[in-house]
Amino acid sequence: MVRKSLGILMEGEQTDSVWGVIDVRLDTDFPDTRAKPIVNSNTGTCFLIPREDDKDRIYINLDGTNVGLSTATNGRVDKTAASPEKLLAVAQEIMKPFKVKQVGECEWWTVYSVGQRIASSYSARGRVFIVGDACHTHSPKAGLGQGMNASMGDSHNLAWKLAYVLRGWAGLSLLKTYESERRKFAQDLIAFDKIWAELFTGKPRTEENQDGVTHEELPQTLSAASRPTSESIIKLQLSQMPNINIWAADGRPVEIHDVLPSDTRIGILVFTGDVATPKDFEKLEELSDKLQNVLATFLQNTKPWTEAFRVISIAGPSLRKVDGTHLALPSSLRSHWSSVLVDDLDTKGKQGGDRYTNYGIVQSAGAWIRMASSLQ
Q1: Which of these, 12, 72, 226, 331, could form a disulfide with 117 (CB 3.0-4.6 Å)?
Q2: What's the rounded mean pLDDT across residues 104-132?
Q3: What is the pLDDT averaged over residues 326-345?
Q4: In the chain, at which residue ranges do the beta strands (DSSP E only) sit?
Q5: How confident is the model at residue 4 (pLDDT cuts 50, 70, 90)?
Q6: pLDDT in tens, 222-273
Q7: Distance between CA atoms of 255 and 127, rounded to whole angstroms?
Q8: C-alpha to C-alpha distances, 134 to 1, 16, 184, nearest whole angstrom
């Protein structure tokens, strides 16, 4: 209703693909229910996702006639003819010859048609913004849970930008980047969903059906969609890989995400290089002065830069060879004892190390990375 009242249209298509979903506990001799299997047979396709308490969520491809469904003129499926019992019966046909029986009651069920659409605009006059499902729709199977992730990414992206504008740290033009950044993500997700949905609904390849889907195509397609592009390598490494560094102050291991909480501040990672000589510290002093000037200019000298930015220094292992050496770093690179990390192993030799190598950063040169308020 909000989107409609704002005059924002949904552009795209409502597909003919119809799916049923049931949450049940199963008694089955199918061997892989906990491995998120995709079962593709001449009868149809179903997808099992393990849930808590030994339950399973089963997505079932429907052709409408097998449960007596009809589609209204608005593209929505008339669910009155469907029932969890009918949906389970279709799944049982798909999964033959395996036994598939329901234990207890169905916890939840639904039937839906797949829409692959995106909003014509993510805001109205730059004053009212929409996020998540109000902006984009696709099948729940796109990216296996990316709908929820996309919605949270939208909300987080918008939230920190609103905070910056309301605090006077940025102009209204910053809000325009919300749509430009998040629309591309939604477009890519929908493009993948179209390919993925077509494979899901296809019949298996047989001697009689040489145009069918092979067993290799589904995992290969999902794997290809998950490969990072060259621009996102460091982003993926920072957000997905274990990122253990060592606190310079006390030698304890720490995960990089624990020193970069989501509190709207922009994180700046300064890879200082392997600081070992007075000349190295002189270079850092020069960098520190320039960095402080830039940050203060951004805030128009109205507030301490630490209110909008968090600078984390990651030094090479030489910084730990002498106790207290980290205190020689410029003050802007160590605004708090917890803001200085070392790329080294912990005292047990089990955690940490190789951050510079994994990011492709030369220790003798160093680098710095500006991180948005969210690892989107």
Answers
A1: 12
A2: 91
A3: 90
A4: 10-28, 38-41, 44-50, 55-62, 70-71, 77-78, 100-119, 123-124, 128-129, 136-137, 244-247, 253-255, 266-273, 309-315, 340-342, 367-371
A5: confident
A6: 666 554 443 333 444 455 456 889 999 888 999 988 888 888 888 899 999 8
A7: 38
A8: 10, 21, 16
Q: Are 312 and 341 in contact (CB under 8 A)?
A: yes
Q: Are 10 and 119 in contact (CB under 8 A)?
A: yes
**Structural tokens at position 9:** 């249209």
Letter string b/e over residues 288-302, b meaning 16 or more CB atoms within 10 A of that residue's CB: beebbeebeeebeee
| Residue type present at position 14 | Q
Query: What gap in Å lies between CA 41 and CA 24, rounded to an integer?
Result: 21
The count of other CB atoms within 10 Å of the CB of residue 59 is: 20
Token pair in block for residue 114: 């797949």
The structure tokens listed for 6 are: 């704002």
Measured in Å, how far apart are the chain's first and last C-alpha atoms?
28
DSSP labels for 47-84? EEEE-GGGEEEEEEEE-SGGGT-EE-TTS-EEGGG--H
Buried b (16+ CB within 10 A) or exposed e, 198-215: ebbbbbebeeeeeeebee
Provide the whole-model pTM: 0.71
